[in-house]
Amino acid sequence: MKKTNSYLAACIVLLSLSCTKSQFDEYETTNGTANFSNYIAVGNSFTQGLQDGGLHNEFGQQDNSFPAIIARQMGTNFVQPTVSGTGSGYMHLEYVNGEIEVIKAYDIDITNNHPLAINYDPSFNNWADTNIKYNNLGVGGINLRNIYGNSSTEEFTYHVYLGSAAPAALAWNGVQGQPISPYGRFLNFGDINNRVQYIDHVRSCNATFFTNWLGINDAMSWAKEGGDDVSGSSLLTNLTEFREKYDTLLDIFQSMGAQGVCATVHDITQAPFFTTITLELLDKDIWIKEGADTTVIRKATNDDFILLSTKDMLTDGVGELQSNPLPHTAVLDKDEIVIVRNYINDINNQITASASSHGYVIVDMYSFMNKLTSGMNFDGIELNTKYIEGGAYSLDGLHPNTRGYAMVANEFIRVINANFSSTLKPVSLGSYRGITFP
Questions:
Q1: How does residue 230 score in pLDDT terms, banded at 50, 70 and 90?
Q2: Mean pLDDT, the chain, integer
């Protein structure tokens, strides 16, 4: 594993936080035919501004979520439930023994956390006022299926996931009565007997304009667990249910007269979480367990994705022997890659059809983000999908960093301008942080 660590160290080039910015031509910002007076953003962790595996704001990370950037260009008030201190805890870079290392966030479920691991801030136990009406309704971890339940059992399940009442073993902080995911706790989900659902917050938002980037987790949750289901939260959402709930969401926006745009899901398998650790990098045979319910153990090939989260396992020698293969959840094998890519195409077809039937505009994030694989130049800044040195992704390898979110915001702005005759000004990526170095 010495070669792997050397590679990661080599990746960490000291990218300058300031660069020469080109100046956009001066022009007056106009709304065109759009009404931006109450802009609401719905989505998951990508909308909430999560990066580095956590929600934090010490360098304005959450303040610069992509919808917050858009709202500033709109010139409209945009209220977010921002965290304090270290927020939920997050991954970061540290000098260790003369080399820069990626330090994982503190994990309450393990006993061998790195001594420099960043834990959640005590204020994160009650980090937002649930009585405030927020414009950013992005909730980390939410699937489209979670926005409401089709039965009392589903409502109960989603309440435990997003609201409260999870047993200690499942609660985000190991405390009885807390939800499984902490990222939606800025919303009032009621109590176990009088449940409020995510969709109810959308109903009461009174949006005049919205962005909708739901659907990512419906694919990503499954893929990042190696194509396995974990506690029921990482299933691929049934396509019929996906379309039904997407239609319901847009029905609500349509009924309140809101304008808006809906984004497709990008090919998350192109993110560095899936593509960084390669057999060429490891320079050795790696044994993997194929499939969730089989006993097939075989050597990994270049068609399999060894997940970034397996770095510690590989350091400990897991996978080097047939008798000690990488577990199924550590690898997205070649067949599972096909499954998730086909699934993304399927849900994108549903997103496009639903948006079209409701008269809403599509932001094709699938095509846009795919361009990162070969690299894109923005205002003199090169961005691609390489881990750390690519400049667009945060340390978790799944979510953009602040500069990456600015890139996303500009694409939304471009599509909004093209369809509503508005002249929202794109932002200069040089004004936004990439990776934060020690």
A1: low
A2: 92
Element (H, E) at 109: none
User: Tokens 């996931």 belong to which residue?
Assistant: 161
> 88 by DSSP, 3-state: which?
coil
The whole domain housing 257 covers 2-15+35-425
Helices and strands counted in the chain (H then E): 13, 12
Instruction: For the beta carbon of residue 370, count every other beta carbon within 10 angstroms.
Output: 14
Is a pLDDT exceeding 90 seen at residue 1?
no
DSSP state at residue 186:
T
Q: Which two tokens stand for residue 67?
A: 């919808």
> How many structural domains compose the chain?
1
With beta carbons less than 8 A apart as the criterion, state whether 412 and 261 touch.
yes
Contact predicate 300/313, CB 8 Å: no
At residue 143, the pLDDT reads 96
Which pLDDT band, with edges at 50, 70 and 90, does 231 fall under?
low
DSSP string, 354-373: HHHHHTPEEE-HHHHHHGGG
Asked whether residue 27 is assigned to any structural domain, the reply reads no
pLDDT number for residue 294: 76
Q: Which of 73, 191, 86, 206 is nearest to 137 (CA)?
A: 206
Q: What CATH number is associated with residue 415? A: 3.40.50.1110
Other beta carbons within 10 Å of 373: 15
Please calculate the CA angle 59-60-61 and round it to the nearest 5 degrees. 95
Is there a domain that residue 437 lies in?
Answer: no
Please list, in sequence order, all residues whose beta carbon lies within 8 angstroms of the beta carbon of residue 274, skipping any fewer than 6 positions away.
Answer: 223, 268, 305, 307, 308, 332, 397
Query: Is residue 201 one of the residues assigned to a domain?
Result: yes
Is residue 218 within 8 A of residue 143, CB to CB? The reply is yes
Over residues 419-427, the mean pLDDT reads 98
Q: CA–CA separation, 300 vs 306, rounded Å?
A: 8
Give the closest residue to 161 by CA, choosing from 137, 127, 131, 195: 195
Contacts of 184 (CB under 8 A, 6+ apart): 139, 140, 141, 142, 162, 163, 198
State the CB neighbour count (10 A cutoff) for residue 17: 14
Nearest to 382 by CA among 13, 38, 89, 10: 13
Contacts of 254 (CB under 8 A, 6+ apart): 358, 359
